[in-house]
Amino acid sequence: MTLLRSYEQPAVFLILAAFLLAVGIFGLIRRRTLVGMLISGELIFAAAMLNLMTFNRFTAPDPTTGQIFVLFIMGLAAAEVAVALSIIIAVYRNYRSVKTKELSELTG
Predict the structure, then answer these.
(1) What is the rounded distance in angstroms from the CA atom of residue 64 to the CA atom of residue 46?
(2) Distance between CA atoms of 83 and 87, rounded to whole angstroms?
(3) Is 32 helix (H, G, I), strand (E, B) or coil?
(4) How big is the chain by its Cα radius of gyration, in Å?
(5) What is the 3-state secondary structure of 48-89?
(6) For the chain, N or C: smaller number of CB within 10 Å?
(7) In terms of CATH architecture, what is 6-106?
């Protein structure tokens, strides 16, 4: 398999999606700020989209199905970012910090 023909193999895309998922989960565990956790969540969404597009390209008889699902995930990701950023801004205004350790009053 040459480098120019690697896009014809689904394993390349699935390995990249697994790497994105691993980096996203690692970021959710290790990040101390809410913004870092938000970016890690977006990496997990990107891994899901890449998996859907890979299976769509190599296995689905109808190519538009996977693309519609990816557009739906992109819409969910945009809504998630909008809501999460508004919550982060509200938390920063009240506590003057976005570090998760300093937000002890939010525990239930």
Answers:
(1) 18
(2) 6
(3) coil
(4) 18
(5) HHHHHHHHHHHHCCCHHHHHHHHHHHHHHHHHHHHHHHHHHH
(6) C
(7) Orthogonal Bundle (1.10)
